Amino acid sequence: MFLEKERTHKIRTRYDRISRYYDFMESPLEKLLFSQWRRRVFDVLDGDNILEVGVGTGKNFDFYPVGKSITGIDFSKGMLRRARRKAQSQGVKADLVDMDVQDLQYDDQSFDTIVATFVFCSVLDPIKGLEEIRRVCKKGGKAVLLEHVKPATTLLGRIFDLLNPICVKLIGANVNRDTVSNVKRAGLNVLEEKNLFRDVVKFVVAKP
């Protein structure tokens, strides 16, 4: 348990460190690709109570639906500070909370839809985090994920494996995870799986 907390702390520290530069670092890809993919996620929301895990600096704020009760969590205080400033300047109404998806402090079946965009690459125990999502999602609700994963082709897969230690050390993100398999292992049922950029970026809708 101590080792897990220590490893999570290291990942959190990396995101705290890069939080002030994070939007700038990703701005080219955000404009070219990411923003249209994010919009797709928020186009399929159901229900009134929405949870976004890994809210980060608030990159999804532009797509938050009006009239919904939205909670956004993140385990990085640095990221949350940026998100809160952005929410205030944009007039976004959301409850932004310092919390780890691996240990959600909410009752079972609390939310209609749970959203995560490019999050489970950095969760220390992704299956544990996905199990928590399943637990707090209402029966009949759904989880909507946008994730980058390890490509299926052997050569590209090996390249991603080689790059992974560098990416983890720099920003705490894994580039070689099989998130769709992890979703299933966590007990979620995949309703939809689409490749958005070859088989590296995936759009996934699942239910408990």
Terminus-to-terminus distance: 27 Å
Element-level helix/strand string: HEEHEEHEHHEE
Q: Give the averaged pLDDT, no decimals.
A: 92
Give me the CATH fold name. Answer: Rossmann fold
Low-pLDDT residue intervals, each spanning 5 or more residues: none
Helix coverage percent:
40-55%
Largest sheet: 7 strands, mixed
CATH class: Alpha Beta
Count of distinct structural domains: 1
State which percent range the strand residues make up: 15-25%
SS element count, helices: 5
Radius of gyration over C-alpha positions, nearest whole angstrom: 16 Å
CATH superfamily: Vaccinia Virus protein VP39
**What is the overall silhouette?**
globular
Secondary structure elements and pairings:
Elements (H helix, E strand, L loop, with lengths): L1 H41 L6 E5 L15 E6 L2 H14 L4 E4 L12 E7 L8 H11 E12 L5 H18 L7 H7 L3 E9 L3 E7 L1
Parallel strand pairs: 1-2, 1-4, 2-3, 4-5
Antiparallel strand pairs: 5-7, 6-7
